[in-house]
Design a protein that fits this description.
alpha+beta, ten-stranded mixed sheet, 19% helix
């Protein structure tokens, strides 16, 4: 075993004033590279560590839970962290959702060292980036790429010993030509095989084809949402789909009689929204990792094994995110949050270019930004378009339109969508540093509300 497992084992032996103790250690190695105006500007690598201690203590009034986090070195700091978590549990009021830690199990890789990365992760990116710079001409390329490996170790006094190394590669590229721009984001466990010149050429072509600027008033427009746009919107839906918030009457999934809306049809399209820790393109932790308690997770659920879950099945809501506490309240199956998300339709779905060719008149939205909650009860969001609103007429992109502010709900969009295209790996632009493992289709929405013209460029 590497030093981190030994340190966690030693820290567990310092338990004194807690019935159960759980430790989560996150070892992060990351490398990044940034460019602007067709030239590299910065690059570097970092390593960091954070340990979270959770103490569970039975008391006369109920079960008390204490949570304390610490960044930095291990060794002498961990006994103090354990003491602090035990004090926090002793001082905390009884927790309504407190429970004993899950049944112990052990991953085969527990004894392995943390994963590692460095700027060598960009060896396939750099030559392609240089080629794209050389071919750019008057256009300017801006962007950022990162590769990080977060190795999570979970050790509990119950006997659980779990390890998961999460590898994430991000590539973010913008192409500018005067006041026009286009953006694309790519995510994958690694950055091998990424064709940077082809991606830059594809973005440049969207700038070259329009040939004119078009001014349009606010209003409702038929829109085509790229997979990246759909990713931003569906992530908001997923993060609002906790059973706890629904039961408490605070979300769009709440109902007046207190029931959960399981079985309700959300869309006429045969869309399935699902998560799977063993998805071949989106592998993620096969167990719950929670560093705090909220509507979606509970610290006492750390270590729960995760399984494939269908949240929406053929257009019908089949599950909300359930902790052990909410599952006991509702009698519904336990369906913890999984760190990936897939939305897919039928087998003969068209590609995005095919959807463009079948559009008489509409707007192609390629990027969304600054999404914010307006009304949690309906999941109404406001946000901005960014880096490329294209006017489509008679199956062709004929112009570039200014940016808009929009007001829309992901739930309402699903209900009104008339066509879903072929799914593809997608990166939510605004949440790309938080939730990256998504596969989404393009969507056609006939009456997307552009509430105002945005001066943003």
């Amino acid at each position: 075993m590497s030093g981190i497992q030994d340190a966690l084992e030693a820290a567990l032996r310092h338990r004194r004033d807690a019935d159960e103790l759980l430790l989560i250690a996150d070892e992060t190695a990351a490398a990044h590279m940034r460019w602007a105006g067709n030239a590299l500007t910065t690059n570097g690598s970092v390593r960091s560590r954070r340990v979270t201690a959770v103490a569970v203590r039975d008391g006369a009034a109920g079960v008390h839970v204490g949570l304390v986090g610490h960044g930095g070195a291990l060794g002498d700091a961990l006994p103090g962290l354990v003491r602090a978590a035990e004090r926090a549990a002793r001082d905390a009021p009884p927790a309504a959702d407190a429970a004993s830690l899950p049944e112990p199990w052990r991953t085969p890789s527990w004894a392995e060292p943390p994963g590692f990365t460095s700027v060598d992760a960009f060896r396939d990116v750099l030559p392609g980036l240089a080629e794209a710079f050389a071919a750019a001409g008057r256009r300017r390329l801006y962007g950022y790429t990162e590769h990080r490996v977060v190795t999570t170790y979970l050790a509990a006094s119950t006997g659980a010993r779990l390890r998961h190394p999460q590898s994430t590669g991000l590539f973010d590229l913008s192409v500018r030509d005067g006041d026009d721009s286009a953006w694309a984001g790519v995510t994958a466990p690694g950055l091998t095989g990424l064709d940077v010149p082809a991606l830059a050429a594809e973005l440049s072509a969207t700038l070259a084809r329009p040939g004119r600027r078009v001014e349009l008033p606010p209003g409702r427009y038929e829109v085509l949402l790229t997979p990246n746009c759909v990713a931003d919107l569906m992530l908001h839906l997923y993060l609002a789909a906790g059973a706890r918030g629904a039961l408490d009457g605070r979300t769009a999934f709440s109902r007046p009689d207190g029931r959960l809306p399981i079985g309700e049809r959300l869309t006429a399209l045969p869309l399935t929204l699902r998560s799977d820790p063993d998805h071949p393109l989106l592998p993620c932790a096969p167990f719950t990792v929670s560093r705090g308690t909220d509507d979606l997770t509970a610290v006492v659920d750390n270590g729960l094994p995760l399984r494939p879950t269908r949240w929406i099945d053929e257009g019908v809501l089949t599950a909300l995110v359930q902790t052990r506490h909410t599952a006991a309240r509702t009698g519904a199956p336990l369906t913890p949050m999984v760190d990936n998300l897939v939305l897919e339709g039928g087998p003969d779905a068209p590609t995005l270019p095919e959807m463009v060719r079948s559009t008489r008149r509409g707007l192609l939205l390629t990027s969304l930004w600054y999404l914010r909650d307006v009304d949690p009860a309906s999941l109404l969001l406001t946000g901005l378009t960014r880096d490329g609103v294209r006017l489509v007429e008679d199956g062709e992109i004929v112009g570039t339109v200014h940016n808009f502010r929009f007001n829309e709900s992901p739930l309402s969009l699903l209900a009104r969508a008339t066509e879903a295209g072929r799914p593809a790996a997608a990166l939510p632009r605004e949440w790309g540093d938080y939730f990256t493992r998504m596969v989404m289709p393009p969507l056609r929405v006939p009456d997307f509300l552009m509430s105002a013209v945005s001066p943003a460029t």
